[in-house]
Structures are given as structure tokens and as C-alpha cells.
Design goal:
With about 475 residues, the protein is α+β, with helices and mostly antiparallel strands. The protein folds into two domains: about 1-95 and about 300-345, Phosphorylase Kinase, domain 1 (2-Layer Sandwich); about 95-300, Transferase(Phosphotransferase) domain 1 (Transferase(Phosphotransferase), domain 1). The chain has helices at about 45-50, 55-65, 100-110, 115-135, 195, 205-220, 230-240, 245-250, 255-265, 275-285, 290-300, 305-325, 325-335, 360-390, 410-420; strands at about 5-10, 10-20, 25-30, 35-45, 75-85, 85-90, 95-100, 155-160, 165, 340-345, 355-360, 460, 470. The strands form four sheets. Strands 1-2-3-4-6-5 form a six-stranded antiparallel beta sheet.
Length: about 475
Amino acid sequence: MPPEPLIIGRYAMYGEIASGGMATVHLGRLLGPVGFTKTVAVKRLHEQFAKDEEFVAMFIDEARLAARIHHTNVVQTLDVVQHDNQLLLVMEYVHGVQLSTLTRLARKNGKRMPPPVAIAVVAGMLRGLHAAHDATDERGQPLHIVHRDVSPHNLLIGVDGVPRVIDFGVAKAAGRLQQTAAGQLKGKVPYMAPEQVRGQPVTRQTDVFAAGVVLWETLLGQRLFSAENDAAVISQILGREIEPPSRIDLAVPAAFDAVVMRALERDSSKRFATAREMAEALESCDRVAAPAEVAAYVQSVAAEQLAKRTSLISEVESTSAIRAASPEMAQQILRTEAATDVASVKTSAGSSSVSVLTHPPGKRIGMMVSVLALLGTAGIGFFFAREVVFRTPPDSPPKAIVAAPPASSSPAAVSASAAPPPAPSPSASAPEPSVAKPKPRPKPIAGSPAAPPSDCDPPYTFDSNGMKKYKPHCL
């Protein structure tokens, strides 16, 4: 059984599935009303950083930026929660492994990622980055997002064979609330572009350089820039000669060399103009593996890790389903919801507005039941009213017609009109049952023509030939 989860708001957090310098990522479950649950990934800012205004601003920025990016190759952000010195970023859960883990496991087993799979993985990452670079704000203005931390650790490859970019925590954007302090480096040094380590302005070509480093390492299964400290790594980034992949290993097709070396140009103006341009050039180097082929590779290399995660998820989902269905959890979820909000909504004509009350789930359900009950009662009353009208004898005196109340009537008026008629007083005599009597033939009025003879019904006969002949005295 998994350990008892930490409940924050409507989320239950379980064990860590990834960790970093600022935050840890946990397997979590959304516990909604009426037993609804959903597996999510919860990024939790370390408590010491949750008290730091700069880190909190950066964490919230990640949510703001990531929420504006909609692409298959980017992990979706679902929610942000701040509760009792806890700051959470809730994301979709992707069952898979990081590219860094996949590369390490393959190297441990003496394997290397096949070039078609490497193309599919890195090209997918590039297309996700391009979506981030082209993201806009609510008014359609470009955000100019630059990830600034592109690395194998921030690329998640799912068992569905789809690579997804994660962690926009240090992204740079024009509309960013939090700005990096002067001289402060953000990101992983071995994947930084020369302009980034110099503290110069970053652009989308900065992410292209990092993608070039990731591609180089994925093809060869080893690090490009590696030294005993960050200062030595920065020195390599700025001045060391970079060799093409095929020169280091002949097993790597030479077609990759031009793409890798252009992405790793130290002059950003000589790199690919966009991440999408690099993806298209990369896909022309060799066959691109289909998602099913990428998925099979991930399953074969990381089978043990994925099996452990699958077992953990199964346990978490089974226990959280019971927890979500409990009355105690339902009450806790309802307490975290807002009591009542008032919103201004324009009418269809656009000339006026009305106030609409939005209630918590518990109240909404109660109101819906009440409305349905009221509608059901009205419907039954209308049915019986129709039956009474249809069964009224034809000789009965006409009944008074009561106009229905207008649509804008108040609830009180509707209730009054729907009330049953008052019961008759005891002194009132009950009406005697009516017996149908034959109606007498009306007497002819003086001066009016006499009634036709009795043999004039019908006023014609048929001769031997079948021809119709009218009776003269009946005309």
C-alpha cells in the first residue's frame, strides 16, 4: 500500500517521481465531488523557496507561461494551488521517462538510441519549443517565450511514443512578472548557449543551441560539454572546438553533421532561424520513427522503471478512489470551494447585463434537484388540466379562461397561480348528476316556409336504369 498522502486543497500528493533544485514532482490525484478522481503530476516548490517572493513569482510565471502553450509536444498545465505555505503546480501526468534517464539506461546496457528514434524524439521537442516561441497573450500579442533550460532532463518521452517538453520554470518572456537578477544564471550550464553564459539577451536561437547539444548527445550517447566545475564548462562552451558526430563515431550517419553543427554555431545569427526549421532539416536526414516504434524502444529500455511506476499508480488510484468517495473527503473538497460568486454576464442583445450567482457543488446539486422537482410537479399538473378540459361534456356551459402569468412573473406569483382552487364550503349543495334528454324539435315560426314532407328524405329515387330522379313535391 502507498503511504498516507498529503492532502492540499482538492489534491492528494503521494511519493516523489522526480526532483530538482527548486521543487519536487509528485504523483498526485485530483479528488473531486461525487467520487471523481484523476491522476496528475504535482510540482511542489520546496518549502524554503515557497517563502521567497522571487521564487514564488518565478513559480507562478511558469504556470502563466505554460498555460499559454497548447501543443502535443508540451506537457499541459492544469492548475496552481497556494495553501498554507505550500505552492503547487498541477500538470497532466504522462506515463513515461525523461530523455536523460533513457540515455543513461541505454548506455548502461551498452546500447544507443537508433537514429530514426533520435530524430523523432528531438524533432518532437523542437516542435514543442516552436509552439512556445510562437505563443501569444490574451490579446494576441507575442510573448517571446524562451525556455532557457532545454536539456534531456526536461524532455519527457511517454509510453505512447510522444516526446513532451516540461519545466518552463526559468523561461524568459516579454510579459514576465519576475525578472532574473543581474549576473544570475538560470538553467543547466552544459546546455547553455554562448550568449546565455555571457549574460546577453536570449532569443529563440538560444533554445536552438541547447537543442543542438541534446541532439549531439543523443546520437553519441555521451556528454558534449563536461568538466569538473561550471567555470570549466563555460570555457568549453565559449571556445572549445566542436566535432561533428560522425567524426567521433562512424556509425552515426554523416547527414546529421550539417544539422548539428549549424545548431551549435556560436554566432546565433548563423543558427536555424526557428526550432521548426531545425526540426524539418533533422527529419530530412533519415527515416523518422513512428510513435509506435518510439514507444517500443522506451518500453524495452525502461521496462523495469515503468513497471514500478505502473504498480504504484495502480495502488494510488485504487486507494484514492475510496478516499474520494468518503463523506469526510467530500466535506473537505466543498470547504475549499468559494462560497458564492457574483459575475456580470451580458445578454444576447449586448445592451444590458444581469447578475448570475454561481454556487459550490453541494448547493448547485441541491438547487438542480429542487428545480427538477418543481418542473415535474408543474408538468403533472398541466397533464391533468388537459385531461379535464378534453373530458368536459359538450353541453356544459363554457368555462372562464384564465390568462397564464407572463414569463417575467416573480416566483411568488408563479406559486400562487399554480395553487389548487379553494375547496367548496360545506353549505354549498352538490350539483345533481345530469341526465341526457332528447332535445324537442323547434316549432316553425309564422310566415316561414313549411317543413318538407316526411317522404323527402331522401328527396330522390332511382329508375330501372339506375338514374337518380328528384321528387317534384320535394323541390
